[in-house]
Design goal:
This protein is mainly alpha-helical. It has 3 helices and no strands.
């Protein structure tokens, strides 16, 4: 997650000594460790609660996989049906588009005089 090497850690330690002083540094380190333990406890409690509610072991290190496997498993068949229906509608729309495109091309060629136009009479002098 964080790409921190030994040089960056040393720089942060020197900055901490300069900013907070060597007297306050141990106290701040204890407070930071206490905060990290508290946050880790909250995360573990949340994970245990989810595991208890779902009845299976929950791995929150991969949230996308968790959502996919636990939350979407019930609606996946519905999503598959909708996807199938959308593919059928897309096929119908493409066929209708090809039909309309053919009609437009026929009208364009008729207007150019290639084929007798059987539409409404056209009066070029009417404005």
């Amino acid at each position: 997650m964080f790409d921190v090497g030994p040089a960056e850690i040393a720089l942060l330690a020197v900055l901490a000594v300069i900013i907070f002083g060597p007297e306050r540094l141990p106290e701040l380190a204890r407070k930071a460790a206490r905060i990290v333990r508290f946050l880790r406890g909250i995360a573990n409690n949340a994970q245990e609660s989810l595991s208890r509610e779902l009845g299976t072991e929950v791995d929150l290190s991969n949230p996308k996989g968790f959502i996919k496997s636990y939350l979407l498993q019930d609606i996946q068949p519905v999503l598959d049906d909708v996807k199938k229906d959308l593919q059928e509608v897309e096929k119908e729309v493409r066929e209708e588009f090809a039909h309309v495109k053919g009609n437009i091309e026929a009208l364009d060629s008729a207007r150019q005089g290639d084929v007798a136009y059987a539409g409404a009479p056209f009066d070029p002098e009417a404005t």
